[in-house]
Amino acid sequence: MLDRTLKVLEYEKVKEQLSKHASSSLGKERVQQLKPTISYEEAVKWQDMTDEAATILRLKGHVPLGGIKDIRAFAKRSKIGSTLSPYELLDISSTLYATKQVKKFIEELLEEELTTPYLQKYGEKLIVLSDLEKKINFCIGENGEVLDSASEKLRGIRQQLKTLESRAREKLEGIIRSSSTQKMLSDAIITIRNDRYVIPVKQEYRSAFGGMIHDQSASGATLFIEPQSVVEINNTLNETKLKERQEIERILIELSSEVAVEADNLLNNVSLLTEIDFMFSKGSYSHKIKGSKPKMNNVGYIKLKKARHPLIPIDEVVPNDIELGKDFTSIVITGPNTGGKTVTLKLVGLLTLMAQSGLQLPTLDGSEMGMFESVYADIGDEQSIEQSLSTFSSHMVNIVEILKKVDANSLVLFDELGAGTDPGEGAALAISILDYVYQRGARVIATTHYPELKAYGYNRQGVINASVEFDVETLSPTYKLLIGVPGRSNAFEISKRLGLNPDVIEQARLHISAESNQVENMIASLEENRRNAESELEEARELRKQSEDLQKELQKQIIEFNEKRDRMYEKAEEKAAEAIEKAKHEAEDIIKQLRRMQKEQYSTIKDHELIEARKRLEESSPHLLKNKKSPVSANKLTEKLSPGDEVKVISLNQKGHLLERVGDKEWQVQIGVMKMKVKEKNLEYMSRPKPIETKPLATVRGNDAHVKLELDLRGERYEDALLKVEKYIDDALLAGYPRVSIIHGKGTGALRKGVQEYVKNHRSVKKARYGEASEGGTGITVIEFK
Q1: How far apart are the first and last CA of the chain?
Q2: Which residues contact 475 (CB under 8 A, 6 or more apart)?
């Protein structure tokens, strides 16, 4: 892409926003290197990587990228034998720790069976160097000091230093505390000069202490003297400090050599961490702009749904639908210079550059973006003072360069084409330029305020008019793009609103040609029809929404009714069973009592009479004994049921059609617009439609497709299961179900956890819980929709 195009479309400003989402200086540096690709395969790959990062951020919330430092120079210096400083070693240790954390994070994602092919590939190449990290941390402290633990020799030297310092201080404290010497001191303190302990002595007593003079005050009244009694101690102290420095140097050399051994691995890790940081910078930026992944194509087709300019605050920007490259390859945006046209040009150009840079777009899902080898933009006031060129001349210089290079793989953006010269000649030139670019096969969007170009879109195949809506009441543009409607002049309406004499306005109208008036009236009619159509569309959408809400509520009530009815049936069955058992026990007790009476009292009761009595007891409640589980009258089906049969649902006294068998003794029944499960014993066969020859129909989706109230994922692979959950939830929502169940089993818990996390983060899920003990416990997740 031309650097001038990147500048005009403010591509660098997008990169500035993007760099704020990088976690390290390496990531920011990588952002600055970003340029749009002209390779279709590379653009698709970059978009997939960004989408993977955005998905991980949505599921996990963050990625542990803190602590990454730019250690490339340190690693390279260690390879040529340089000694690294403690702070440089600390940066290496920090980067090693970050490498370990990122690798661990990626492994956890794999354990959770998340599909992350690009991040997984990076993770496999990362090399954890725990031993080197431990060695550095064992030797270097958080503030860059070499620790006593670095070596036994260093520990011994530092203990010796403490002893010598203590001895020197004791000697000097004895001197400054002596009453005989206090009058000779400027101040009773011990200080250091030239790395030696000294005391401040008045000038006139310099000979009283002997030793060496190391410094004096500015006035010369005070001398800093090292008394003879501590000279030897200070000498030994300095020798010991020299040994300390030598040992520290030896330790740093040793650590630097350890770094040199792993220098190539360090450089490899830094490169991988840079790409990971860059990848998640784009994912994080996508969340900020509420972006979505565009579908890339290499046929030059652009379809942007509710596109927003990423550099305009989200609460101020007006979303627009823009399509180019299928039914028409040129858009001519006409109308006065009231704002919005240039923004539209920059929006399309900038989103093209972003898509080819692997950035998601601030649009709704379902947007598409074509690949272009070149994006040319002639936008803004290009008047050149240095070259003494007018605005028109400067524009023409750019346009001449564009026309030399433009081809079928180009996107061309012209702002105020032909402006800055005679209107008649400018309009003719604009038409000629647009024809030339169109013939070369390029995609082009041009803005102009010339009325002659309003008819251009009607007279040229592959060209369409557009305009930016203007609100005459507020005297300001709404920034809403109207595809297919040319712009109209609002000069008379604006002047009238501002108070211009009506006579002046009417006189002005007389100077407008009849053709211009016809065009203006045609545009006004188009705008009126569009507003009416939009109003009716909005009303229809509201009615459809109300209808869907009513259907969902009715569906919910029917399901709740069936559940309540089934619970009542179950309770009735339990009570009936209890009553039967109780009657049997009572009968047995009576018979036992009669036998006992027979034996004890020599009654004349016969055995066959006892058997007959028991039989009568059993027959006393034949309906309960024979139909324990049937709350409705028994129905003997004379026909074997098949899908499509017309049946009567006995409990509801309603007719319906069988859709499919959903169990051994249960069917899915369509009753009007509703679908419900009904037990076979509650169905009565009515009729069977005669087969007729039909042509194949398209697959029915949405509310006309059968959706079960539960989804069984047992035995599924993790990735396949989540895809099925996603589709199932969409189908259930379309079917209007208020509540569904997902059976995932208990197993290792990975699938269960993944399903729980996915449904809880779904925008349409109101509540998700594990099933009750009677529902399947933790082996099932019950979802309630909003």
Answers
A1: 47
A2: 494, 497, 498
Q: What is the pLDDT of residue 631?
A: 43
Q: Of the CATH numbers 3.90.470.20, 3.30.390.50, 3.30.379.10, 1.10.1420.10, which one belongs to the domain with range 3-129+262-288?
A: 1.10.1420.10
Asked if residue 119 lies in contact with residue 60, where contact means CB atoms within 8 angstroms, the answer is: no
- DSSP bridge partners of 741: 710, 782
The answer on pLDDT for 49 being more than 60 is yes
Q: Find how far residue 268's CA is from the centre of its chain.
A: 28
Please state the residue numbers annotated as binding site.
335-342
Q: Which amino acid does the sequence have at 107?
A: E
Average of pLDDT values for 247-256? 95
- Binding-site annotation, residues for ATP: 335-342
Answer whether residue 529 shows pLDDT above 90. no
Alpha carbons 315 and 452: distance in angstroms, whole number: 36
Q: How crowded is the C-beta side of 175, counted as CA atoms within 13 Å?
A: 25
Asked whether residue 506 carries a pLDDT value surpassing 80, the answer given is no
HSE-up (13 A, CA, CB side) for residue 226: 17
pLDDT (tens digit per residue) in 565-580? 778 878 887 888 888 7
Q: Is residue 166 packed enough to be buried (19+ CB in 10 Å), middle (13-18) or exposed (0-12)? A: exposed
pLDDT confidence band for 80 (50 / 70 / 90): very high
CB atoms within 10 A of CB 596: 11
CATH 3.40.50.10140 is right for the domain spanning 150-255: no
Annotated domain spans of the chain: 3-129+262-288, 150-255, 295-512, 537-626, 701-786
C-alpha span between 718 and 115 (Å, rounded): 9
Span 545-557, pLDDT tens digits: 888 888 888 878 8
295-512: in CATH 3.40.50.300: yes
Helix axis angle, 263-288 relative to 40-60, nearest 10°?
A: 80
81-104 residue pLDDT tens: 999 999 999 999 999 999 999 999
> What is residue 780's DSSP assignment?
E
Beta strands per DSSP E along 650-715:
654-663, 666-671, 674-679, 683-687, 710-712
Kindly report, residue by residue over 445-459, the tens digit of the pLDDT. 998 877 777 777 777
Lowest mean pLDDT among 21-30, 288-297, 674-683, 768-777: 768-777
Q: Phi-psi category of 780—alpha, beta or left, where left has phi over 0 and alpha has psi -120 to 50?
A: beta
Give residue 642's identity as a one-letter amino acid code: S
Q: How far is residue 195's CA from residue 382's CA, in Å, rounded to a whole number?
A: 68
The rounded percent of the chain whose pLDDT value lies above 70 is 84
For all residues of the chain together, what is the average pLDDT? 82
DSSP 3-state of 116: coil
Which of the four CATH numbers 3.30.1370.110, 3.40.50.620, 3.40.640.10, 3.50.50.60 does domain 701-786 have?
3.30.1370.110
- 611 Cβ neighbours under 8 A, 6+ residues apart: none
Q: How far apart are CA 116 and CA 113, in angstroms?
A: 9
Confidence at 384, pLDDT banded by 50, 70, 90: very low
- Please give the structure tokens belonging to residue 683: 């169905």
Length of the chain: 786
Structure tokens at 9: 């479309």
Residue 36 vs residues 41, 251, 364, 484, 504: alpha-carbon distances, Å: 13, 48, 22, 31, 54
Q: Cα separation of 754 and 765, whole Å?
A: 15
Residue 336 has pLDDT above 70, yes or no: no
Same fold, 3-129+262-288 and 150-255: yes
